[in-house]
Design brief:
12 helices; 0% strand; mainly alpha; single chain
Amino acid sequence: ACFGVAISYFLVIERQRMHGLIKALAQIGEALVVLSMAWWLDLESIIMLCIVWKLLVTASVIIYMCLECGIASPRLPINREFVSFGGWLMLSQVTFFGATHASRYVLVNFVGVEQLAVFAAAYSVAKVIELVIMPVRFALLPTISAHWNRQEYDKTKPLISLCYKLIFLLGLPMLGGLYMYGNVLISLLSSNQVNIEPWIILLLGIAPLMNGLRTINSMAFWMKKNIHYSIGIQLMGMAINLFFAIILVRTFGVIGAVIAAVCSMLLMAMITHKYAIKVFKVKINWHHFAKSVFCAGLMTGGLMLWSFVDIGQILTMIIGVFLGLIIY
Protein backbone atom coordinates (compact mmCIF):
# COMPACT_ATOMS: atom_id res chain seq x y z
CA ALA A 1 0.00 0.00 0.00
CA CYS A 2 2.84 2.40 0.87
CA PHE A 3 4.54 1.58 -2.42
CA GLY A 4 1.33 2.31 -4.37
CA VAL A 5 0.87 5.65 -2.62
CA ALA A 6 4.51 6.59 -3.11
CA ILE A 7 4.68 5.94 -6.85
CA SER A 8 1.32 7.70 -7.33
CA TYR A 9 3.34 10.88 -6.83
CA PHE A 10 4.69 10.50 -10.36
CA LEU A 11 1.17 10.21 -11.74
CA VAL A 12 0.17 13.40 -9.94
CA ILE A 13 3.05 15.35 -11.48
CA GLU A 14 2.38 13.68 -14.87
CA ARG A 15 5.60 11.65 -15.07
CA GLN A 16 4.01 8.47 -16.33
CA ARG A 17 7.25 7.05 -17.70
CA MET A 18 8.96 7.31 -14.32
CA HIS A 19 5.92 5.66 -12.71
CA GLY A 20 6.09 2.78 -15.16
CA LEU A 21 9.85 2.35 -14.80
CA ILE A 22 9.75 2.22 -11.00
CA LYS A 23 6.83 -0.19 -10.99
CA ALA A 24 8.62 -2.43 -13.49
CA LEU A 25 11.83 -2.22 -11.44
CA ALA A 26 10.00 -3.34 -8.29
CA GLN A 27 8.35 -6.29 -10.05
CA ILE A 28 11.52 -7.38 -11.87
CA GLY A 29 13.42 -7.19 -8.58
CA GLU A 30 10.88 -9.45 -6.87
CA ALA A 31 11.05 -11.91 -9.74
CA LEU A 32 14.86 -11.99 -9.58
CA VAL A 33 14.74 -12.58 -5.81
CA VAL A 34 12.39 -15.54 -6.28
CA LEU A 35 14.33 -17.03 -9.20
CA SER A 36 17.75 -16.63 -7.61
CA MET A 37 16.81 -17.82 -4.11
CA ALA A 38 14.25 -20.54 -4.84
CA TRP A 39 16.90 -23.29 -4.65
CA TRP A 40 18.54 -22.02 -1.47
CA LEU A 41 15.87 -20.62 0.84
CA ASP A 42 12.47 -21.68 2.12
CA LEU A 43 9.25 -19.91 1.18
CA GLU A 44 9.14 -17.75 4.32
CA SER A 45 12.65 -16.40 3.73
CA ILE A 46 11.91 -15.61 0.10
CA ILE A 47 8.77 -13.71 1.11
CA MET A 48 10.78 -11.71 3.65
CA LEU A 49 13.40 -10.83 1.01
CA CYS A 50 10.65 -9.66 -1.35
CA ILE A 51 9.24 -7.45 1.42
CA VAL A 52 12.70 -5.99 2.12
CA TRP A 53 13.17 -5.25 -1.59
CA LYS A 54 9.78 -3.52 -1.81
CA LEU A 55 10.60 -1.50 1.33
CA LEU A 56 13.89 -0.33 -0.20
CA VAL A 57 12.18 0.78 -3.41
CA THR A 58 9.39 2.51 -1.46
CA ALA A 59 11.85 4.30 0.84
CA SER A 60 13.87 5.47 -2.19
CA VAL A 61 10.78 6.93 -3.84
CA ILE A 62 9.69 8.69 -0.63
CA ILE A 63 13.17 10.19 -0.13
CA TYR A 64 13.22 11.39 -3.75
CA MET A 65 9.76 12.90 -3.32
CA CYS A 66 10.77 14.74 -0.13
CA LEU A 67 13.96 16.08 -1.72
CA GLU A 68 12.06 17.35 -4.74
CA CYS A 69 9.07 19.02 -3.10
CA GLY A 70 9.92 19.18 0.60
CA ILE A 71 7.83 18.23 3.61
CA ALA A 72 4.74 20.34 4.30
CA SER A 73 2.68 20.57 7.47
CA PRO A 74 -0.80 19.11 6.91
CA ARG A 75 -3.75 21.51 7.06
CA LEU A 76 -6.96 20.35 8.69
CA PRO A 77 -9.48 21.63 6.07
CA ILE A 78 -7.67 19.72 3.31
CA ASN A 79 -7.44 16.64 5.48
CA ARG A 80 -11.19 16.64 6.08
CA GLU A 81 -11.83 16.75 2.36
CA PHE A 82 -9.42 13.92 1.63
CA VAL A 83 -10.64 11.79 4.53
CA SER A 84 -14.21 12.06 3.24
CA PHE A 85 -13.15 11.29 -0.33
CA GLY A 86 -10.85 8.49 0.78
CA GLY A 87 -13.50 6.91 2.97
CA TRP A 88 -15.96 6.66 0.10
CA LEU A 89 -13.18 5.38 -2.15
CA MET A 90 -12.29 2.59 0.29
CA LEU A 91 -15.93 1.58 0.57
CA SER A 92 -16.12 1.60 -3.22
CA GLN A 93 -13.26 -0.92 -3.38
CA VAL A 94 -15.09 -3.19 -0.93
CA THR A 95 -18.34 -3.14 -2.92
CA PHE A 96 -16.44 -3.71 -6.18
CA PHE A 97 -14.79 -6.77 -4.65
CA GLY A 98 -18.24 -8.08 -3.72
CA ALA A 99 -19.60 -7.35 -7.18
CA THR A 100 -16.80 -9.32 -8.87
CA HIS A 101 -16.52 -12.25 -6.41
CA ALA A 102 -20.13 -12.98 -5.47
CA SER A 103 -20.49 -15.77 -8.04
CA ARG A 104 -17.36 -17.48 -6.63
CA TYR A 105 -19.00 -17.66 -3.19
CA VAL A 106 -22.07 -19.31 -4.69
CA LEU A 107 -19.93 -21.65 -6.80
CA VAL A 108 -17.86 -22.98 -3.91
CA ASN A 109 -20.91 -23.48 -1.66
CA PHE A 110 -23.21 -25.01 -4.29
CA VAL A 111 -20.94 -27.26 -6.37
CA GLY A 112 -17.63 -27.48 -4.50
CA VAL A 113 -14.04 -26.33 -4.55
CA GLU A 114 -13.19 -28.29 -7.73
CA GLN A 115 -15.49 -26.15 -9.88
CA LEU A 116 -14.14 -23.02 -8.22
CA ALA A 117 -10.62 -24.10 -9.24
CA VAL A 118 -11.76 -24.43 -12.86
CA PHE A 119 -13.38 -20.98 -12.71
CA ALA A 120 -10.27 -19.46 -11.11
CA ALA A 121 -8.00 -21.00 -13.77
CA ALA A 122 -10.15 -19.62 -16.59
CA TYR A 123 -10.43 -16.20 -14.95
CA SER A 124 -6.69 -15.95 -14.32
CA VAL A 125 -6.14 -16.34 -18.06
CA ALA A 126 -9.04 -14.07 -19.01
CA LYS A 127 -7.51 -11.31 -16.87
CA VAL A 128 -4.81 -10.98 -19.54
CA ILE A 129 -7.33 -8.56 -21.07
CA GLU A 130 -6.56 -6.17 -18.20
CA LEU A 131 -3.25 -5.43 -19.91
CA VAL A 132 -5.16 -3.09 -22.24
CA ILE A 133 -6.30 -1.08 -19.22
CA MET A 134 -2.72 -0.36 -18.09
CA PRO A 135 -1.90 2.47 -20.56
CA VAL A 136 -5.34 3.95 -19.95
CA ARG A 137 -5.18 3.78 -16.15
CA PHE A 138 -1.58 4.93 -15.68
CA ALA A 139 -1.12 7.33 -18.61
CA LEU A 140 -4.38 8.73 -19.94
CA LEU A 141 -6.56 8.90 -16.83
CA PRO A 142 -4.05 10.94 -14.76
CA THR A 143 -3.72 13.34 -17.70
CA ILE A 144 -7.51 13.63 -17.92
CA SER A 145 -7.65 14.33 -14.19
CA ALA A 146 -5.00 17.06 -14.51
CA HIS A 147 -6.90 18.80 -17.32
CA TRP A 148 -10.14 18.56 -15.35
CA ASN A 149 -8.59 20.08 -12.24
CA ARG A 150 -7.30 22.97 -14.37
CA GLN A 151 -10.85 23.35 -15.72
CA GLU A 152 -9.63 22.52 -19.25
CA TYR A 153 -12.76 20.53 -19.94
CA ASP A 154 -12.47 20.64 -23.74
CA LYS A 155 -9.10 18.88 -23.56
CA THR A 156 -10.62 15.94 -21.68
CA LYS A 157 -13.08 15.01 -24.45
CA PRO A 158 -10.56 13.72 -27.06
CA LEU A 159 -8.67 11.85 -24.32
CA ILE A 160 -11.83 10.12 -23.07
CA SER A 161 -12.66 9.17 -26.66
CA LEU A 162 -9.12 7.82 -27.09
CA CYS A 163 -9.55 5.69 -23.95
CA TYR A 164 -12.65 4.04 -25.39
CA LYS A 165 -10.91 3.44 -28.72
CA LEU A 166 -7.88 1.83 -27.07
CA ILE A 167 -10.03 -0.52 -25.01
CA PHE A 168 -11.72 -1.87 -28.14
CA LEU A 169 -8.70 -1.64 -30.45
CA LEU A 170 -6.52 -3.70 -28.11
CA GLY A 171 -9.08 -5.69 -26.14
CA LEU A 172 -11.14 -7.27 -28.92
CA PRO A 173 -8.20 -8.99 -30.69
CA MET A 174 -7.04 -10.23 -27.29
CA LEU A 175 -10.46 -11.85 -26.86
CA GLY A 176 -9.85 -13.68 -30.13
CA GLY A 177 -6.43 -14.76 -28.89
CA LEU A 178 -7.97 -16.06 -25.65
CA TYR A 179 -10.48 -18.07 -27.64
CA MET A 180 -7.70 -19.72 -29.61
CA TYR A 181 -4.98 -20.16 -26.99
CA GLY A 182 -6.68 -19.84 -23.60
CA ASN A 183 -6.36 -23.55 -22.82
CA VAL A 184 -2.67 -23.51 -23.75
CA LEU A 185 -2.07 -20.72 -21.24
CA ILE A 186 -4.06 -22.59 -18.58
CA SER A 187 -1.94 -25.72 -19.12
CA LEU A 188 1.22 -23.63 -18.68
CA LEU A 189 -0.04 -21.97 -15.49
CA SER A 190 -1.55 -25.06 -13.88
CA SER A 191 0.03 -28.37 -12.98
CA ASN A 192 -3.37 -30.05 -13.27
CA GLN A 193 -4.99 -30.95 -16.56
CA VAL A 194 -7.84 -28.45 -16.83
CA ASN A 195 -9.69 -28.38 -20.13
CA ILE A 196 -12.20 -25.57 -20.55
CA GLU A 197 -14.34 -24.90 -23.59
CA PRO A 198 -12.82 -22.01 -25.60
CA TRP A 199 -16.12 -20.16 -25.79
CA ILE A 200 -16.29 -20.11 -21.97
CA ILE A 201 -12.87 -18.44 -21.80
CA LEU A 202 -14.02 -16.02 -24.51
CA LEU A 203 -17.19 -15.19 -22.58
CA LEU A 204 -15.29 -14.74 -19.33
CA GLY A 205 -12.83 -12.43 -21.09
CA ILE A 206 -15.69 -9.98 -21.65
CA ALA A 207 -15.76 -9.29 -17.89
CA PRO A 208 -12.29 -7.62 -17.64
CA LEU A 209 -12.99 -5.82 -20.93
CA MET A 210 -16.17 -4.35 -19.41
CA ASN A 211 -14.17 -3.54 -16.30
CA GLY A 212 -11.92 -1.41 -18.50
CA LEU A 213 -14.95 0.56 -19.68
CA ARG A 214 -16.19 0.84 -16.10
CA THR A 215 -12.80 2.20 -15.03
CA ILE A 216 -12.95 4.93 -17.68
CA ASN A 217 -16.56 5.78 -16.87
CA SER A 218 -15.84 5.90 -13.14
CA MET A 219 -13.63 8.92 -13.75
CA ALA A 220 -16.87 10.88 -13.96
CA PHE A 221 -17.71 9.97 -10.35
CA TRP A 222 -14.22 10.88 -9.18
CA MET A 223 -14.17 14.22 -11.00
CA LYS A 224 -17.54 15.17 -9.55
CA LYS A 225 -16.64 13.65 -6.17
CA ASN A 226 -19.76 11.48 -6.30
CA ILE A 227 -18.14 8.17 -5.46
CA HIS A 228 -21.19 7.19 -3.42
CA TYR A 229 -23.08 6.85 -6.73
CA SER A 230 -20.58 4.26 -7.93
CA ILE A 231 -21.00 2.37 -4.65
CA GLY A 232 -24.72 2.06 -5.33
CA ILE A 233 -24.02 0.80 -8.85
CA GLN A 234 -21.55 -1.77 -7.53
CA LEU A 235 -24.06 -2.98 -4.95
CA MET A 236 -26.49 -3.48 -7.85
CA GLY A 237 -23.76 -5.40 -9.69
CA MET A 238 -23.22 -7.60 -6.64
CA ALA A 239 -26.95 -8.28 -6.40
CA ILE A 240 -27.13 -9.20 -10.09
CA ASN A 241 -24.08 -11.44 -9.73
CA LEU A 242 -25.61 -13.26 -6.75
CA PHE A 243 -29.04 -13.51 -8.37
CA PHE A 244 -27.85 -15.11 -11.60
CA ALA A 245 -25.29 -17.28 -9.81
CA ILE A 246 -27.89 -18.72 -7.41
CA ILE A 247 -30.22 -19.48 -10.33
CA LEU A 248 -27.65 -20.82 -12.81
CA VAL A 249 -24.81 -22.43 -10.84
CA ARG A 250 -26.80 -25.43 -9.56
CA THR A 251 -27.78 -26.35 -13.13
CA PHE A 252 -24.83 -25.21 -15.24
CA GLY A 253 -21.94 -25.11 -12.77
CA VAL A 254 -18.98 -23.02 -13.95
CA ILE A 255 -20.90 -21.77 -16.99
CA GLY A 256 -23.56 -20.30 -14.69
CA ALA A 257 -20.90 -18.50 -12.64
CA VAL A 258 -19.32 -17.13 -15.82
CA ILE A 259 -22.67 -15.80 -17.08
CA ALA A 260 -23.37 -14.21 -13.69
CA ALA A 261 -19.96 -12.50 -13.58
CA VAL A 262 -20.25 -11.16 -17.14
CA CYS A 263 -23.82 -9.89 -16.62
CA SER A 264 -22.74 -8.09 -13.45
CA MET A 265 -19.80 -6.36 -15.10
CA LEU A 266 -21.81 -5.52 -18.22
CA LEU A 267 -24.51 -3.89 -16.08
CA MET A 268 -21.97 -1.75 -14.20
CA ALA A 269 -20.27 -0.69 -17.45
CA MET A 270 -23.58 0.34 -19.03
CA ILE A 271 -24.87 2.33 -16.05
CA THR A 272 -21.57 4.11 -15.43
CA HIS A 273 -21.38 4.99 -19.13
CA LYS A 274 -24.75 6.73 -18.92
CA TYR A 275 -23.40 8.92 -16.13
CA ALA A 276 -20.08 9.50 -17.92
CA ILE A 277 -21.93 10.81 -20.99
CA LYS A 278 -23.60 13.48 -18.86
CA VAL A 279 -20.29 14.58 -17.34
CA PHE A 280 -17.81 14.31 -20.22
CA LYS A 281 -20.25 14.74 -23.16
CA VAL A 282 -18.49 11.86 -24.95
CA LYS A 283 -20.09 8.68 -26.30
CA ILE A 284 -18.55 5.43 -27.48
CA ASN A 285 -17.78 5.52 -31.20
CA TRP A 286 -19.77 2.49 -32.33
CA HIS A 287 -18.43 2.78 -35.89
CA HIS A 288 -14.91 2.30 -34.55
CA PHE A 289 -16.19 -0.56 -32.36
CA ALA A 290 -17.69 -2.32 -35.40
CA LYS A 291 -14.41 -2.01 -37.32
CA SER A 292 -12.50 -3.46 -34.38
CA VAL A 293 -14.94 -6.38 -34.14
CA PHE A 294 -14.60 -7.05 -37.88
CA CYS A 295 -10.80 -6.97 -37.81
CA ALA A 296 -10.67 -9.13 -34.67
CA GLY A 297 -12.98 -11.63 -36.39
CA LEU A 298 -10.69 -11.78 -39.43
CA MET A 299 -7.69 -12.28 -37.16
CA THR A 300 -9.41 -15.11 -35.27
CA GLY A 301 -10.38 -16.77 -38.56
CA GLY A 302 -6.77 -16.63 -39.70
CA LEU A 303 -5.62 -18.18 -36.42
CA MET A 304 -8.18 -20.96 -36.85
CA LEU A 305 -6.61 -21.83 -40.19
CA TRP A 306 -3.15 -21.67 -38.64
CA SER A 307 -4.24 -24.07 -35.88
CA PHE A 308 -4.36 -26.90 -38.42
CA VAL A 309 -0.54 -26.74 -38.61
CA ASP A 310 0.77 -29.29 -36.09
CA ILE A 311 4.09 -28.08 -34.69
CA GLY A 312 3.26 -28.30 -30.98
CA GLN A 313 0.87 -26.24 -28.88
CA ILE A 314 3.38 -23.77 -27.46
CA LEU A 315 5.20 -23.09 -30.73
CA THR A 316 1.88 -22.78 -32.56
CA MET A 317 0.73 -20.22 -29.99
CA ILE A 318 3.94 -18.17 -30.15
CA ILE A 319 3.90 -17.99 -33.96
CA GLY A 320 0.12 -17.46 -33.86
CA VAL A 321 0.54 -14.35 -31.70
CA PHE A 322 2.83 -12.73 -34.27
CA LEU A 323 0.63 -13.92 -37.14
CA GLY A 324 -2.43 -12.47 -35.41
CA LEU A 325 -0.69 -9.09 -35.02
CA ILE A 326 0.12 -9.04 -38.73
CA ILE A 327 -3.44 -9.94 -39.75
CA TYR A 328 -4.99 -7.43 -37.35
